[in-house]
Amino acid sequence: MFLSKFIVLKQIFLASFSLITLSATHSSLVVSDLSAASATVSSQSTYKQILTQTNSIPNLSTDNTIKDEKNINISLIPSVKREKSGFTMYIWQPGGDIKEVTTRISIKAKYGSKYHKERFLGDYKYKIKQKAKFVDGFKLGDRIVVRLYDQDNRFIGYTEFACLPQHTAVNLILSPQPTEDQVVRLFYGVDANEDSIVDQDTTTYFDYFTKLNNREVTFLTSPENIDVIPYKAAGFSNVARNSIYPLSFREGEFALAGKTISIYVPNIAQALTSIPGTLVELTELNDNFTFQLHQLLRKYRQVGVAKDIQVIFSDIPANYWAKDYIAELAAMEIMGGYPDGKFRPNDSVTKAEFAVLLNRIFIKSKVREPINFSDVPRDFWAYDAIKETYQRGFFSVSKNRKFNPNQKLKRLDILITLAKGLNYKFTGSTKQTLSVYSDADSLRQEHQEFISALTENGVMINYPDRRLINPKQLATRAEVSALLYRAMASAGEVADFPSQSAVKSIPD
After folding, report:
1. Beta strand pairing call for 183-190 and 168-174
2. Most confidently predicted of 24-28, 72-76, 145-149, 370-374
3. Which residue among 24, 232, 461, 488 is least enclosed by CB atoms within 10 Å?
């Protein structure tokens, strides 16, 4: 939203950003990310997965309602990095004879207490009793959306689940007549050893049904009006009398339990409304298929983001070194292009502009009191962002309390601000770590540990020469995009995109 008092230049600049904030990278997680309906699962289960007859699956307890989430191990909450997650998904149909279904998978990536817009991750042709694994880049709290279609492309089911702190085993169980019933049972839980089976004795598992009705779906609070017999198989024979949902599905702005929601929202991605196999080619699954998130995000980026989001820019060629970082920040509505369809990757970045970006990406605890900068009046377009980022530990203060908001930042300014604000620490040998750079000698002693810490954490990226830090060179929008994205990837907030320009530290 533009205020009338903004000058034209800042109107254009803000048009290249969104009003979205990404979740905290270096602050404690909201407890609801981890909190889950918790129940004891018997280790005496005699039920087995159909595809893995030698391994047992936990038996569901059916003697209570939603369990007390206080039993979850809060010590799992990381102080620096988010828990990385992933999942293995099976499709089952115990009482029917359907041979295969098309499974459309998408993600609502978590950021803070909200979610990014739903993003398409592919259409997969599943045979019944078949599995596929999705890894590398999913994180705790991300919501995975699954739409199911029969062989005639009729919509037969919809459900959602939340990624857990560790790898998740997910089981979608269909009725014998899925086209008529349009009811799906979802049973999933922690799979720490990644053997595709919910761990024995886990206290974190979930079990609920969804009912599809045209373009709406209801997340049922119990299966009392459902004949559960056809869903009792494949190691999941005990159906909970009351649905077991994650806390985030039961409470808050994005709760789903007991609610009926529309499965199509305005501007939803084109790929999510298309007939399977038309806009995007179906992916045929073979045994033990594994998909990496960054590959799916890249493959389906153009058709997989909401229609009102631009991720292709006329001045960013297909082989541009920072294309993935720029496109992903745009997809998350953090940093976008200009009204003329360009990104302007070589433009410089001012201190005020960088403050706006930091404020939208990193939600950290405030570590110091605000101050009144003599050159940042209250009606300055970036006043709030400057105030917030300063309180969170970004930026230093000059003796005359000037912020210099219009100062064009050098690469060293960007790097030191990131390292200080994100509290990166380095305890190893700076000489060894900095040996990967040919211009490290130009760094002052007090800056060497910061650059070493960024290098060790996988944030550093230099183009065109990976060995050159170029600390005195003005930072470009492309470089800032790459460094910000890699800082998020280092913390497990986003999927990492490999790059030949990324700097790898030398192990001790």
Report:
1. antiparallel
2. 145-149
3. 232
